[in-house]
Design brief:
- The protein is of the alpha/beta class.
- It has 2 domains: about 80-280, 3-Layer(aba) Sandwich (Rossmann fold), CATH 3.40.50.300; about 285-415, abc- transporter (atp binding component) like domain (Coagulation Factor XIII, Chain A, domain 1, Distorted Sandwich), CATH 2.70.50.60.
- Helices cover about 25% and strands about 35% of the residues.
- The chain is built from 9 helices and 21 strands.
- It has helices spanning about 45-60, 105-110, 145-155, 160-175, 190-200, 220-235, 245-250, 270-280, 285-295; strands at about 10-15, 20-40, 75-90, 95-100, 120-125, 130, 205-210, 240, 255-260, 265-270, 305-310, 315, 320, 325-335, 340, 340-350, 355-360, 370, 375-380, 390-400, 405-415.
- The strands form 5 sheets. The chain has a 6-stranded mixed beta sheet with strand order 6-7-8-4-9-10, with helices on both faces. Strands 13-21-20-16-17 form a 5-stranded mixed beta sheet.
- Strand 7 (about 205-210), helix 6 (about 220-235) and strand 8 form a beta-alpha-beta unit.
- The chain is globular and about 75 Å long.
Length: about 450
């Protein structure tokens, strides 16, 4: 692919294998755009438009050389989608790229895929690159699925014999055999992505670049794609993967590049960087902001949530240590005698999966009736239960079989940091579980046959 107008010292790609294991080297890469801003013109009625047009015509008739200046003044601003980005990726590494929307992730991948040229900086890539950046990348809509497989293989520099050797495997993976001779413009977005990913992953690129496009597919296909990308990495090829799904990033990637406002915020091990990322954005709201959200709840004639607090060792906090218990305090008021009214909270992971749900009357023998008044309900999360990672604690009030108050609950970020001695012998081994209770084990020598039947 030819990069029109590209200055050679800005970007250099090579297909020759170097002695180094580095396959992608990015140095001080920047990409900027000029954004135009126009001043807003005030609203005018039709009579004003007619009057102004007549005056303008009269002026031109009396002064034919008068210039026609636009009433809207335009200004331009330089916006950096990427700014001074530098990193290196070794052969066989599976690297995740994370960041909020607008952080520069897709711009970076487009430069690495030779779709967009940089403003400044330098990129060196060793090997064939296959990219899947958006639905329809590299496909001609008028060609059939079969023809597009051969077209993409040719773009990657593969011979017809090599493409034929992989053809059946591609079709089986994409599950589009029935529509193989149909123009891809008639495919659904899911079919499009299945075939595009199958082509990109199976035609043996040395570097596979995949954007969030996999989110278009169903859950089963996403799992299948993640497995294939892991397989590609194990074969010694390099994978770059952009996703907002932190669990997918953790399961697949060896390391992570975190972009923020077009700049590298952190590069490092997957678990460490993803936790820092989630900590910054999931835990952006302080307890004061949570209180503001509580105060803004709509009026309810029976139940009013007043305060929520998280405490460890008596101190208010949203970051806790896993080796010590955590208290959750809920203050609320009740306006009238009510049966089945209770408060509860959920603990969810960063993907909003429910891990724990506990009610203030879990130990009651029967449905309680609560009198009007102001109450404090307190729960203690035991020490050594939550693994070191990010969670969300959501607090609710509810009238049994009637309604939850508020409907979506009040969310409080909860970051758990490691403080106990679990995993002390293997500190580099990542903790993958969401819960980490202490489960007693015992190991003793066995002198006889082993475990005997009961």
């Amino acid at each position: 692919m030819i990069l029109k107008g590209l200055t050679f010292n800005l970007l250099r790609f090579t297909d020759k294998r170097s002695m180094s294991d580095t396959v992608i080297k990015v140095e001080n890469l920047s990409k900027s755009y000029l954004i135009s801003h126009q001043s807003q013109e005030r609203y005018t009625a039709l009579r004003d438009v007619i009057t102004n047009s007549a005056k303008s015509l009269a002026k031109r008739l009396t002064s034919p050389f008068t210039s026609n200046v636009s009433p809207l003044a335009a200004t331009q601003e330089e916006f950096f989608a990427l700014k001074d980005v530098s990193f290196e990726i070794k052969r066989g590494e599976r690297v995740g790229i994370i960041g909020r929307n607008g952080a520069g992730k897709s711009t970076l991948l487009k430069i690495l895929s030779r779709i967009t040229e940089p403003t400044s900086g330098r990129v060196e890539i060793t090997g064939r690159v296959a990219s899947l950046l958006e639905v329809g990348t590299g496909f001609h809509p008028e060609l059939t699925g079969r023809e597009n497989i051969f077209l993409n293989g040719a773009i990657l520099g593969m011979s017809r014999v090599d493409i034929k050797r992989k053809f059946d495997e591609i079709v089986a993976f994409a599950e589009v055999e029935k529509f193989l001779d149909t123009p891809v413009k008639r495919y659904s977005s899911g079919m499009y992505v299945r075939l595009a990913f199958a082509v990109a992953a199976h035609l043996e690129p040395e570097i596979l670049i995949v954007d969030e496009v996999l989110a278009v597919g169903d859950a089963q296909f996403q799992k299948k794609c993640l497995g294939k990308m892991a397989e590609v990495g194990e074969e010694g090829r390099t994978v770059l993967f952009v996703s907002h799904n932190m669990q997918a990033i953790r399961n697949l990637c060896d390391g992570v590049i975190w972009l923020n406002d077009g700049q590298v915020c952190q590069i490092g091990p997957t678990l460490e960087v993803s936790e820092n990322y989630l900590c910054q954005y999931l835990h952006a709201r302080s307890l004061e902001e949570v209180q503001l959200a509580i105060d803004a709840l709509p009026h309810d004639p029976i139940f009013r949530l007043e305060e929520v607090a998280i405490r460890q060792k008596g101190s208010l906090c949203t970051t806790v240590l896993n080796g010590h218990p955590v208290d959750v305090e809920i203050v609320y008021s009740v306006s009238q005698r009510t049966s089945g009214l209770r408060v509860y909270f959920d603990i969810c992971d960063e993907e909003r999966n429910l891990l724990i749900r506990t009610f203030n009357d879990d130990d009651a023998d029967s449905m309680s009736t609560i009198e009007p008044g102001r109450y404090l309900s307190k729960a203690t999360i035991p020490a050594d239960l939550l693994a070191p990672r990010s969670y969300e604690l959501r607090v609710y009030g509810t009238i049994y079989n009637v309604r939850s108050i508020p409907a979506g609950g009040i969310g409080i970020p909860l970051l758990v940091e490691k403080s106990n001695d679990i995993n002390r012998a293997y500190p580099q081994d990542p903790i993958r579980s969401k819960l980490l209770p202490r489960i007693p084990w015992q190991t003793v020598p066995v002198k006889e046959e082993g475990i005997k039947a009961c």
